[in-house]
Amino acid sequence: MAETSALEMSQGGLGKIEIAPEVIEIIAGIAASEIDGVSSMRGNFAAGVVERFGKKNHGKGIKVDLTDNQVKIDVYCVLNFGVSIPKVATKMQEHIRQTLLTMTGLETEEINIHIVNINFETQKEEKTEE
């Protein structure tokens, strides 16, 4: 989902630091899935098959675009039924931005949230419990 070139950072005179786009995808994916109201991240068929065998794909549903040392992130996710979409999306943007800043020192130019589906399973589970 990401470009192949790594983002280069210069921190002091000891050498260069490179961060692969896949690392940014993983960090953003974990940060997004930590928000209450996020049911899952969108992935492709191959990612779904891999997850069925027990390997978690933390970069699923994240697209990172690195251009001229600017980071643009697109997040594709499924939310739970009944949550406030604007509030959850805003929390996701803030949490992803803060997590990337803390872990990598990178400022993000854009974090675009794409809601691709709503999960109604929690509503069905509540009815069966009653």
Report what the structure shows.
By secondary structure, the chain is α+β, with helices and mostly antiparallel strands. It contains 4 helices and 6 strands, in the order ββαβαββαβα. Strands 3, 4, 5 and 6 form a 4-stranded mixed sheet that branches. A two-stranded antiparallel ribbon has the order 1-2. A hairpin with a 5-residue loop joins strand 1 and strand 2. Helix 1 (21-33) crosses helix 3. The model is unreliable at 44-52 (pLDDT under 50).
Brief write-up:
It is built from four helices and six strands; from the N terminus they run ββαβαββαβα.
Could you tell me the strand content as a percent range? 25-35%
Helix content: 25-40%
Shape: elongated
For this structure, the quaternary state is single chain
Main beta-sheet strand count, sense and barrel state: 4 strands, mixed
> Rg from C-alpha positions?
16 Å
Strand elements, count: 6
Order of helices and strands: EEHEHEEHEH
